[in-house]
């Protein structure tokens, strides 16, 4: 590579990172409430804590499955044996492959891939069964990614599965198969489209641009209404590609569209990545109020502290490779998350009232990556034993444990232990003024009761008292395990020790 090419390459990488990381990534940290209230006309359309059955179901999912599938899956992050790694932002972004490694006329080749889309092994029932066995309670399926290729026979574009040799409606098969397994279906829908002549990244200015973008907005509305008509069983939309200035400028349109979608499909769940207010504030309006039913910014990242979430519902979507949502044939030379990593993230999410959504990127024939098959199976085996600690649980208002994550359901407290203590004692800190304290403890894996004793260490100024759960000497698990603790009223007030004067 000569200097010019290297520079070009670096620029392309920087530009693509900038494109996937919109400047407004601030919602993923602790959020400070704005100090001044401003007038917001196009703010939230739903209350911050919906209590209807659909939202309660969302709250109890625990685990979800994401599927990225489209014509990018045919390529699998490479072409003619040459890897796109480093040349494209992610496998499902392979259309924007550029730099020295990009094949000649690549965009043209990509835009013709649909002519080869004929997934001979696709069997929605097999995927749904696998998701069920893994323990997923909802699925988010890419009906249309940034390339604009629709996996359903849309009336509003020629660029759909109807034009491929496969022809059949993929989305319908997914909706039917997953619904039949009792798994709720959410449709992923990218607003931004790379090769739609009416789409533009910038806010439309001239009359001509306004007319073009107006057509694009009408097209988007048509496709969404079409999806609701075709697939009335869906529970929600998972929107993406909404960060461009064009979409942001259409806040009045998007406000009305969200309203229309909700009216047409009562109970519909829409996350915070759909729209912004008239001041350009996304995910949260200018007064810090959530725009949608749950926070949708936890992408390949997790909150460090429960307080960051301000009590909002949320889900975290996660890849197994570091990045790359679409099929990646070659997993060598990169860190891919292990089942233990993923279970840790799952429990960390549910311990903070979030759902954890694990991504799968099937190949162009409709097969999952063999490593994904393995991980799905292992997660399912673990959850089967520990389901009580995963589903329908809430954050437990206890001092966080260094050994793992607490979840709670009524009087049952669960501690999923990822770090096994060397002394075999699982110590639980309970505030001295707590109304409920551990009464009994048992392992979920075998329902065996464990010895439990109060340990008042007597640390000066300590606001906690301690309960020690003693693990059996011969208990040597090779996976995380759950201790189920029954909470009871405290027997007597913890002895008051005198604090030192200084
Ligand atoms: C988007 C897509 O570009 C990507 O291909 C994938 O579908 C993923 C689930 O969503 O990627 C994003 C979107 C937003 C951020 C980062 C990646 N973000 O806000 O930080």
From TrEMBL:
Keyword presence, Coiled coil: no
Entry's Gene Ontology cellular component terms: lysosome
Protein's GO biological process: fucose metabolic process; glycoside catabolic process
UniProt KW Glycosyltransferase keyword: no
Entry EC no(s): 3.2.1.51
An MF annotation (GO) of this entry: alpha-L-fucosidase activity
Glycoside hydrolase family 29 N-terminal domain boundaries: 41-388
Signal peptide location: 1-25
Keywords carried by this UniProt record: Glycosidase, Hydrolase, Signal
Entries under Pfam families matching the protein: Alpha_L_fucos
Family as reported in the entry's similarity comment: Belongs to the glycosyl hydrolase 29 family.
Its job: Alpha-L-fucosidase is responsible for hydrolyzing the alpha-1,6-linked fucose joined to the reducing-end N-acetylglucosamine of the carbohydrate moieties of glycoproteins.
Name used for this protein in its record: alpha-L-fucosidase
Source organism of the structure: Pedobacter ginsenosidimutans
